[in-house]
Amino acid sequence: MKIKYLLIWGMTGLFLTGQAQVLPYKNSKLPITDRVDDLLGRMTVEEKVGQLSKLLGWEMYEKSGKTVRASQKLKDVVKQQHIGLLWATLRADPWTQKTLTNGLSSKEAAQATNAIQRFMLDSTRLGIPLLLSEEAPHGHMAIGATVFPTAIGQASTWNPTLIQSMASAIARETSAVGGKNGYGPVLDLARDPRWSRTEETYGEDPYLIGQMGKAMVTGFQGTKIGEADKIISTLKHFVAYAVPEGGHNGGSVSVGERALLQYFLPPFEQAVKAGAASVMTAYNSIDGVPCSANPWLLNDILRKQWGFQGFVVSDLLSISGLNGGHGTATDAVDAAQQSLNAGLDVDLSGSGYNQNLLEAVKTGRVDQQTLDRAVARVLYQKFALGLFDRPYVDEKAVDKKVGTKEHLDLARKVAREAVVLLKNDNQLLPLSKSLKRIAVIGPNADNMYNQLGDYTAPQPEEKVKTVLAGIRAAVSKNTQVDYVKGCAIRDTTASDIAVAVRAASEADVTVLVLGGSSARDFKTSYQATGAANVDSGASTLSDMESGEGFDRASLDLLGDQLKLLQALQATGKPLVLVTIMGRPLNLNWAAAHVPAIVNAWYPGQEGGLAIADVLFGDYNPAGRLPISIARYVGQLPVHYNHTKPKHHDYVESDAKPLYAFGYGLSYTSFTYSNLRVALAEQVDDFACTVRVDVKNTGNRDGEEVVQLYAIDEVSSVVTPVKQLKKFTRQAIKQGETKELSFVLTKEDLKLWGLDKQWKTEKGKFTLLLGGSSDDAKLTGEFVLAKDYAF
């Protein structure tokens, strides 16, 4: 018996000794700040500098048969650089040269991230896990993940609640395979559609962008970082990236301080205050200072004024751009110290910091406190995400979380709500499902990659539903559907317009699908940043005319598309134009001659079904434009909320866009009435309550996007001619009337005054209510008796 007790006592002692040996940073019961401090105190300078390096991740695994393991490249860079993060480990596309064959399935992706983390925990001195960042703006950019509409389409839904649900689905899929940081949302204010990345934005309006951005952040992150099936968000691109001079991607911008504060920065502020844990700097400079070395932006605005607690990451190679394209640093060491001292924590590339930052620290150009602060920001997020305590994912659960039917249904719903009906003369739409013969024509009618947008992984053919597939699935078995491509997006060497005309002549109606493409191919060459190289003199042209690097000098339909459109219209048969594109293109001829036009942007993998739902009336369209469609490039910029005075007409045309921000038609009609404006002023704020009755006066159920705009009639600084302040997308049944209300406060009407202080000024404000920025159904006003300070 004595021996038994001695054994028990001895085993208990061993257990207690083991518990005592748990290092504080590995103790999940301690506060995160304590764990960060303990770990920082154990790290060498080399390990700290390495923790700020984020390398390209798709080289960090090796795939052999059914086995996926950490690559020798990973082992080497960990030993040499002590890296802390990886980017795009699971990415597949022509740039990474990862295909459906040599890339990773969802299950293999989970195996890869587990193998990588296992190496980090088992084979490094301190066992610090990696934070894996993934592209996720409209779905995780990995094989097997669900592909949703691109951001410009998401914004066309005017439905933040739906976009939050979409972001939750993306987070669930990304987290399931080991990604813990999603790149997105893109909060760039897009005011020059010549710029190649317009499709990645939520359009031209800061309020709409802010609402979509908050929805994405909340969907990604949940209510608290570290929740199951959630990831942290990286806001892009900080700031003013979408208005480069001449539309040149990454070019300098001409934006003043007041414009930055009032229009370009507010979407980021909204997303930061929603809890965003990471922000990415933009490639461009502002007033001569590159964003990746701008202490005013990264410290004064982002951290001091907004209270941002996360980490800032560079865009790929943007630190090197300081001593490269920008020419503001003498060498790579100077570039590293400029960026870190300005508040940029993480180097996306691993070459901007690394030995350059180490040299800057050792020579005193970066002090130890500044380095520790940056490292602590990264470590905090790793602890908050649970990476130290739960570093591995459940490989058996992947199929239950990635590419599920629930997510496919959601992708179709987002695509459906994003469709904008631009024109519908004589109610040509919706079409009958019992038509005898339909001709489906055009380069985007049956091209799966052309409807997916940039930042999309390779897809098996059966996964993506094209417009042709959607129409065939929608009509009766007695309807004959003929398909002819007719022409390509850009290449004119294989056009066959005569065959397309013959098909249209024999059909009861023609559905023509034109537009653009951001589909990368394996023939295109790419820059080190991942942007495509444009070869305007190539003998054979890809369809790609949009997407990163593909800036435009005009917005015309390229190739033989306009010729095809004109030839089909000349047949005299009913013609429906469907546009699938990443930026607003020139639709002047179509608007003048084609009876029905439907715009779907890049609608994602379920887009063909969603478009068919609209064409045949299974869904009543209610999408609204988040960006104006110009008549001519010479009008640009043509955003609706330009600053006063009002624009006057040109010699050749009027100054209005072809289709304005907020525009979109329905298969039913709505009337607005009984506008009531009630103002209650308090000591420090006011509440202006705006009520309106909206009635569905048509013959079918539908949705209306009710938009409230405000005009500050007299102000101390110049303000916009009008500005969106509130909106709501409401389902209203046939014959039903809904009372809707909005509340405006001083926050909604503030401006950056002459004294460089935020304030809402006294005076008269005009309110415009309607279904578009250029179609006010009702007008009201109120007068503030005093100024309101912040």
UniProtKB/TrEMBL annotation:
| Taxonomic source organism | Sphingobacterium bambusae
Q: Which residues form the Fibronectin type III-like domain?
A: 704-773
The identity of this protein, by name, is Glycoside hydrolase family 3 N-terminal domain-containing protein
UniProt keyword list: Glycosidase, Hydrolase
- Reading the lineage from the top rank, the first entry is Bacteria
Family matches, as SMART domains:
Fn3_like
InterPro entries to which the protein is assigned, alphabetical: Cellulose_Degrad_GH3 (IPR051915), Fn3-like (IPR026891), GH (IPR017853), Glyco_hydro_3_AS (IPR019800), Glyco_hydro_3_C (IPR002772), Glyco_hydro_3_C_sf (IPR036881), Glyco_hydro_3_N (IPR001764), Glyco_hydro_3_N_sf (IPR036962)
A Gene Ontology molecular-function term? hydrolase activity
What SUPFAM superfamilies does its record include? (Trans)glycosidases, Beta-D-glucan exohydrolase, C-terminal domain
Q: Which family does it belong to?
A: Belongs to the glycosyl hydrolase 3 family.
